[in-house]
Design brief:
- 2 copies of one chain form a homodimer.
- The first copy, chain A, folds into 2 domains: 19-41 and 257-301, no CATH class; 45-126 and 162-251, Cyclophilin (Beta Barrel), CATH 2.40.100.10.
- In chain A, strand 4 and strand 5 form a beta hairpin.
- The first copy, chain A, is globular.
- Chain A contains 5 helices and 16 strands.
- Chain A is α+β, with helices and mostly antiparallel strands and 303 residues long.
- Chain A has helices spanning 2-15, 28-33, 68-79, 213-216, 263-273, and strands at 40-41, 48-53, 56-62, 87-92, 96-100, 135-136, 146-150, 153-157, 163-165, 171-174, 188-191, 205-211, 236-237, 240-243, 256-258, 296-297.
C-alpha cells in the first residue's frame, strides 16, 4: 500500500511536473539527475576491493587516508589470494556480518598470512583529524562533538583535533583479538544494523561497502553466541577477492561515488532533513550522520 | 578472531571472578542474572501477536496505549484470520520488511477486510504525551527534545507535551497510502536497518517485534524500487497470525520483557554507555535511543 501508491504518485508527478506542489521537496532522483559530472568521483582502483560471493559482488572502498597500514596489509592479503576460499563465519542480527578464515583462531590450522603482517599499529583514530577534508552536518550528534563526511566516509571529530570514521551501516571494520595491535585485516566485518557507535575509536575502520550491502545484510543469522554459525555448512564461501587495480579495465565494475563536498550532496542532505511531500507532512528538520546514504552510480548507465 | 577469543575470555572471567579487573564493566548477562522477578513483566496476551512464517515465529507486542484504534483494528483482522496466507511483499535494504495482501492496492482483487475498518483516525503521536510513563535517557537525541523508554517502547518527546514511539530497529509501523487516515493495519512493516527517524510523527506505530527479528531482517531484498519483489514466487507466505489471548495457555510462547523503569535496565544502559573491558578501552560515554535493546527472556528457562 504505502509504497506502491507512493511510487505511482512519484511517477505521476515526475510525468506532470507542472502539477507538482511547489512546496514539495525534490526527490533524490530529481536532485541526482541535475548533478554535474564533476560532482561524481571515480574511486582509485588501488582502494577498490571486489569480493565475489555466490549471491554476487560486494565492492568495498578502502579508507587509505585513514588507515594506511591496514589498507596496505589488506592489499597484500588480496594479492596473495589469502581471501579466496575464506568464508562468512558470523552474522549477528542488528550488528555485523564477519568474514575470514574459520580456523583463524587455531594456530595449527590457520591459513598462512603469507607476507602480510600479523600485527599492526592500531589506526583507530587520527590524531591529526583536522588535516582531513570535512563537510559538517548541521544537527549535531549524540556521540561526538561534530560529525560529517570526508571523501565519502562518515566521520566524527572530538573538537580537540582527533577524528575517526564512524561505525555506520556498511562500514567495514577490522576484527581483532583483545590486544589493540592484533587486527591485521585478515578478518573483516560490515555493519548490518543500527550504527554501533560504541565501536568507534576501539577498532580500525578499513573502509566502506559502496555496493552489495544487500548481499551481506541478508545472510541467515548464526545460531551460536555472537552470531557464529553452529555448522560449517552454514558458512558462505567467498570465491575470490581482488583489487580493481589488478583486474583488466574492461572487466572492472563501473562505479562512481557522489562527492560529499558537492552541492548536490548538500541538497540531498537538506531534502532528507526536511522531506515534505504528499506523504511526509511533518519533516524531521534534522538528520543523523548514519541516516545519510552516499549515492553511487554506474557511469556506463548515465540517466 | 575478535569474537571467539573475547567469548573465551568472558567465560574465563566469569569462571574466575576474583581475577576480573575491578574496573571492568559488568556484562549484560551478569546484570540480567541479578534482576529480580518483579523487574520482568509478562505482556498482556491481548497485546501479543504471533506471526508464523516458514522460518519460525515472530512475536509482536502491540502498543495498545499509544495507538488503541490501530491495535483494535489489528485484533479484528487477526481474529477474522485476515493475515493467514498474506505475504512478505517488500524488503528494502537498511529500511523495512513489509507484509500484507500483495493485491491490497487492487480494489478488484484485494482481500476483504471483513468487519475491520478501512480507515482510521491517525495515531501518529500523542498530544497528551506527558501522561505516559517515561524513563529518560541521559545523552539527548539528534531528532527530539528528549528520548527514553515507556513500558518497553522507545519514545521521543518534543518538550511541549507531544510524545511518540520512535522508528527504531524492530519497531512495527502501519503502512498507509498518502492520506493520513488510510493506514488500517492490514499492511505492516518492521524496521530492519538504521533507525529511519524521519518516519516519526508521519506514521502510526503499531508496536514492536520482541522476538524473531532475525527472521524478518534476513529475507532477500526485493529487486523492484522500494524493495518490492519482482516475482510473486519470491514472496514468503505467512501461515497464520494469532493473538496470544486466543491461543490455549499451554501453547503460548513463554516470554517476559525487562521493565524499562527497573534498576537492572538502568544498569544495562549505563554499562553500554560506558563499556570498559579488555576489548573496549575507550568507552563512548554516550548512548543513542535506538542502540538500546530491551531484553526479553523465556521465563520457563530461568537461568
Amino acid at each position: 500500500m504505502l509504497a506502491r501508491t507512493c511510487l505511482a504518485l512519484a511517477i505521476a508527478l515526475a510525468a506532470l511536473p507542472s502539477l507538482a506542489d511547489e512546496a514539495k521537496t525534490p526527490t533524490p532522483k530529481e536532485l541526482l539527475a541535475k548533478a554535474t559530472p564533476a560532482e561524481w568521483r571515480t574511486p582509485d582502483p588501488q582502494n577498490l576491493v571486489y569480493m565475489d560471493l555466490p549471491q554476487g559482488r560486494v565492492v568495498i572502498e578502502l579508507a587509505q587516508e585513514w588507515s594506511p597500514l591496514h589498507a596496505a596489509n589488506i592489499r597484500t592479503l588480496i594479492r596473495e589470494h589469502y581471501f579466496d576460499g575464506t568464508q562468512v563465519i558470523r552474522v549477528q542480527d542488528n550488528f555485523v556480518t564477519q568474514w575470514g578464515d574459520p580456523d583463524g583462531d587455531d594456530k595449527k590450522k590457520a591459513k598462512s598470512l603469507g607476507t602480510a603482517k600479523e600485527t599492526l599499529a592500531p589506526e583507530f583514530t587520527r590524531k591529526d583529524g583536522k588535516a582531513y577534508p570535512f563537510t559538517k552536518l548541521p544537527d549535531g550528534d549524540v556521540y561526538a562533538a561534530e560529525v560529517g563526511f570526508s571523501d565519502g566516509f562518515p566521520v566524527a571529530r572530538d573538537g580537540q583535533g582527533e577524528a575517526w570514521i564512524t561505525h555506520c551501516y556498511g562500514t567495514v571494520g577490522v576484527a581483532r583479538d583483545t590486544g589493540a595491535e592484533t587486527g591485521n585485516g585478515s578478518s573483516l566485518y560490515a555493519i548490518i544494523g543500527q550504527a554501533p557507535r560504541n565501536l568507534d575509536r576501539n577498532l580500525a575502520v578499513a573502509g566502506k561497502v559502496i555496493k552489495g550491502m544487500e548481499i551481506l545484510s541478508a545472510y541467515p543469522r548464526g545460531g551460536e553466541p555472537m552470531g557464529f554459525y553452529d555448522k560449517p555448512a552454514q558458512r558462505v564461501t567467498i570465491s575470490s577477492v581482488r583489487l580493481a587495480a589488478d583486474v583488466p579495465e574492461a572487466q572492472r565494475t563501473p562505479i562512481q561515488v557522489l562527492r560529499t563536498d558537492s552541492k548536490t550532496f548538500a541538497a540531498l542532505v537538506e531534502a532528507k532533513r526536511n522531506r515534505r511531500d504528499a506523504f511526509y507532512t511533518r519533516p524531521a528538520g534534522k538528520i543523523d550522520l548514519c541516516n545519510i546514504n552516499v549515492p553511487v552510480r554506474d557511469p556506463s548507465k548515465k540517466s
